[in-house]
Amino acid sequence: MRSASVELHDVSKSYGNVQALHSVSLRIERGEVVAVLGPNGAGKSTSIAIMLGLRRPTTGQALLFGEPPGSRRARSRIGVMLQESGVPPTLKVRELIDLFRTYYPRPLSTEELLLQTGLDDKANTLLGTLSGGQKQRVYFALAICGDPEVLFLDEPTNGLDVESRRVFWDRIREFATRGATIVLTTHNLQEADALAHRIVVIDKGRIVADDTPSGIKARTAGKHISFTTGHPLPLGFFDDLPLSRLAVNESAVTFVSSEPEVALKRVFRTDCTVSDLEITAIGLEEAVLSLTGRNGSSGVEASRDRS
Ligand code: ADP
């Protein structure tokens, strides 16, 4: 069988008393674009560091192209953009790119890299004098300069504003068209959805979901609804509806639903006045909670309703 790009076999990792990963197994095939999604502290960076051979698993094994990740051969076939780059700020952009190109057997040309990352007018600028967004582009150029078969991006758009983030997504997509495998971490569901074919949700060091973006969204789609009614609604008013976390406190009603319109229509058909209506999307933290079911049965119900 052809080896996968990246494999984790039953990987656990402890830092002293903190267990960052618990028996994580994952296989990423060639050409896949995979987002590892989860809240801060979930274990995303640790997973990437183990895939790269930068950290050793406490137990279990990581493989890159079927080989130990630290091997020189494996390293020459990957590109990495980590949150901490360790790149000298006193070099010019072109110098940095030229330097990094020498590490790889078949690098992309400097001119192509400058153009592809929108840095052609910054080629002779010192890294240390660039803005955060421009530096991020340099790190991306350095990550792709070896024309890697697997590109690792750890929170690539962290700290960027919305516009710069979108431009960055386009650059990542453009690179993906070359057929490379891409593994990125993010705590942003929208980012995972915009870029990945597959989303692996990690929470507290465990994989809690592994699905296509539409599969994940269907499971996590939900809105928080809250409103106040002129008088209390009859007992069991919402009983047959696909709601979760329903709380009725006198005339104050809150619930989570992927189809709030159905419940709201029913309320509006009564002679009850409705005030203080608020509808907000549920955040990733809650989405992850609903995937793990740790918020009680109701969170899981929301996903079952859709399946
Ligand atoms: P994420 O990238 O999802 O934010 P991390 O992999 O950085 O998560 O961290 C997972 C857990 O491991 C967290 O509880 C974090 O505090 C802990 N951790 C990460 N690196 C270290 C370290 N070098 N020493 C001790 N604890 C660490």
Q: Which class do the helix and strand fractions yield?
A: alpha/beta
Overall geometric form:
elongated
Name every ligand kind in the structure.
adenosine-5'-diphosphate
Strand order of the largest sheet: 5-6-7-3-8-9
- By DSSP (H or I, 4+ residues per run), the number of helices equals 11
What is the first-to-last residue Cα distance? 33 Å
Q: Beta fraction of the residues?
A: 25-35%
Give the C-alpha Rg: 23 Å
Largest sheet: 6 strands, mixed
Helix content: 25-40%
Q: What sequence of helices (H) and strands (E) makes up the elements?
A: EEEHEHEHHHEHEHEEHEEEHEHH
The total count of strands amounts to 13
Overview features:
single chain, 13 strands, 307 residues, 28% strand, four-stranded antiparallel beta sheet, binds adenosine-5'-diphosphate, alpha/beta
Can you offer a commentary on this structure?
- A 6-stranded mixed β-sheet has the order 5-6-7-3-8-9, with helices on both faces.
- Residues 295-307 have low confidence and may be disordered.
- It starts with 5 loop residues before the first strand and ends with a helix.
- It has helices at 44-51, 72-75, 93-101, 110-116, 132-144, 162-176, 189-195, 213-220, 260-268, 284-292, 297-306; strands at residues 6-15, 18-28, 33-37, 59-64, 78-81, 150-154, 181-186, 198-203, 206-211, 223-229, 244-249, 252-257, 274-281.
- Helix 10 crosses helix 11.
- The protein is of the alpha/beta class.
- It is built from 11 helices and 13 strands.
- The longest helix is centred in the middle third of the chain and has 15 residues, at 162-176.
- It binds adenosine-5'-diphosphate.
- Adenosine-5'-diphosphate binds next to strand 2 and helix 1.
- Adenosine-5'-diphosphate (ADP) binds at residues 15, 18, 20, 38, 40-46.
